[in-house]
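Okay, any thoughts on this one?
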Amino acid sequence: MHYDQSWMGFGIVGGLQAGMISVVVGMLLFGVFHWLGRRNGWGYGPQVSWAFLLTTLLTAGGDLSDLFYFNYAQTQSLQLLRAQLALVHDPDGIGTRVALELLGAVLGVYLGWALCTCAWGQRLFRSRK
């Protein structure tokens, strides 16, 4: 799924912007799955894995599918390839953007986990009874 990338920069700047989006989404999704996990008795494994999977699908899924398509699809004509490349924001930096989106997903889930398990984070997010 692609989100609107028209405002993003090109090259490493666009990759860093996409990576920061992945960090924020990863932290938020880990918070959601941590909340669900506490109520359903899950360990940290399912919380981390579901948060990472959904973060990857939401933020890097579109660029990852484009990267896969451009590497493995058989394009019969140069016009078809040009038409597909015209749909992609910054096709030259797609590899950098995918790598930084995946790194951002890992970092975001880790920061969410660290926030929810540290001493002041547990006091902040403790359920009130």
